[in-house]
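PROTEIN DESIGN WORKSHEET
SECTION A - STRUCTURE
LENGTH: 214
TOKENS:
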């Protein structure tokens, strides 16, 4: 930007308005640089709060063992779980597993979620000492207790064809009557009165449940 020249060839003082405008532009440039830095730091902070990007084969989450349908994924899940059990879980003195643990689907489910919770607490993008403490104080002891209560002194021999654990998978009782319940609920907003047949089926189911608990 050039100064205006006078008639005798000397330069006049710059226009005060031009000087003010130049200073304003300079201030705006500094402010823009500060805002750029702030946005960059905010982006970094948000990235720390986001969960880890899942691996390609875990894009839909760890997946429920009880609902597993892909043999290849199930084998990979068990291989991953075994590695973690040996490296972490079984290092705790109270975490013994019976020989038949893998024959108990609910036990596998419990151990898998505990394994993923351990990874999130220690290695996840949002990992924190608070989550580590929660894993140690609440999550791990809870799984250990439930497995001890549910598996007890079970062993693999009890899963043999003549063993007391060799039972078909449980099914929801009286499921064949659900259509009637759905129809009654949607039309009257109440549950239907049980029929004699339904009462008999329920009694048989309850007797079987009591017998299996002994």
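SECTION B - SEQUENCE
RESIDUE ASSIGNMENT:
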């Amino acid at each position: 930007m050039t100064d205006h020249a006078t008639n005798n060839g000397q330069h006049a003082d710059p226009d005060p308005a031009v000087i003010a405008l130049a200073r304003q532009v300079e201030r705006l440039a500094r402010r823009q640089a500060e805002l750029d830095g702030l946005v960059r730091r905010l982006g970094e902070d948000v990235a720390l709060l986001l969960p880890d990007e899942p691996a390609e084969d875990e894009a839909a989450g760890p997946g429920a063992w009880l609902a597993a349908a892909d043999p290849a994924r199930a084998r990979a899940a068990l291989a991953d779980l075994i590695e973690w059990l040996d490296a972490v879980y079984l290092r705790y003195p109270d975490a013994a597993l019976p020989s038949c643990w893998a024959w108990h689907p609910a036990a596998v489910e419990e151990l898998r979620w505990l394994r993923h919770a351990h990874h999130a607490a220690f290695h996840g993008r949002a990992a924190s000492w608070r989550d580590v403490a929660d894993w140690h104080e609440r999550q791990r002891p809870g799984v250990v207790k439930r497995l001890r209560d549910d598996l007890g002194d079970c062993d693999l021999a009890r899963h043999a064809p003549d063993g007391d654990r060799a039972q078909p998978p449980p099914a929801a009782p009286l499921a064949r009557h659900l259509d009637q319940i759905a129809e009654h609920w949607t039309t009257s907003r109440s549950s239907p009165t049980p029929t004699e047949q339904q009462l008999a089926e329920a009694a048989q189911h309850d007797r079987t449940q009591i017998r299996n608990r002994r």
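SECTION C - NOTES
The helical segments are 16-49, 71-87, 105-123, 129-151, 178-188, 196-213.
Residues 14-50 form one domain.
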